Amino acid sequence: MSGEIAGFCPMGCGQTLFEGASGYITCSSLRCPRPTAVADLLDDSETEHVVVLKQSTFTVRHPLRERLDDELLSCSLDEWLVSRPGPPAIPGRYRVRWRGQPDATWEPLQ
């Protein structure tokens, strides 16, 4: 079954989403730069923070759940990383199960 989906295309196209015959949510706008963006986001199984540590900088990919209620704007993991004098682990890419310090787990990723 296919039909319109309530919600907005994350690429800025507006209320243009529909469910295709295969069940994937797609944008109907011909100008959409990535019509499969919603399906791609929903297909991502990562539910934890992904942190890339470098010697003097870091980046954090926040889990999608932190978009709710703007929680990512006050992410305590990000605040904790900023407050540190250096990286908390050797430089690399990590899945971080953040429950606050000292209850965080850092799992190396490839």
Set down the secondary structure blueprint.
Blueprint: E1 3-4, E2 17-19, E3 25-27, H1 37-43, E4 49-53, E5 58-61, H2 76-83, E6 92-97, E7 105-109
Antiparallel strand pairs: 1-2, 2-3, 4-5, 4-6, 6-7
Q: How do you describe this structure in short?
A:
This protein is α+β, with helices and mostly antiparallel strands. About 15% of the residues lie in helices and about 25% in strands.
- What series of H and E elements makes up the topology? EEEHEEHEE
Q: What form results from the Cα inertia axes?
A: elongated
Distance between the termini: 39 Å
Helix content: 10-25%
Going by helix content, strand content and strand pairing, the class is: alpha+beta
What value does the Rg take, in angstroms?
18 Å
Strand order of the largest sheet: 5-4-6-7
Could you give a short account of the major beta sheet? 4 strands, antiparallel
Low-confidence stretches: none
The average pLDDT value, as a whole number, equals 92
Number of domains: 2
What count of helical segments does DSSP give?
2
Work out the number of β strands: 7
* Strand-residue proportion: 25-35%
Write a concise keyword list for the protein shown above.
4-stranded antiparallel sheet; 2 domains; elongated; 3-stranded antiparallel sheet; alpha+beta; 110 residues
Written description of the protein model:
- The protein is α+β, with helices and mostly antiparallel strands and 110 residues long.
- It folds into two domains: 3-43, no CATH class; 49-109, no CATH class.
- Helix content is 14%, strand content 25%.
- It contains two helices and seven strands; from the N terminus they run E-E-E-H-E-E-H-E-E.
- It has helices spanning 37-43, 76-83; strands at residues 3-4, 17-19, 25-27, 49-53, 58-61, 92-97, 105-109.
- The strands form two sheets. It has a four-stranded antiparallel beta sheet with strand order 5-4-6-7, with no helix packed on it.
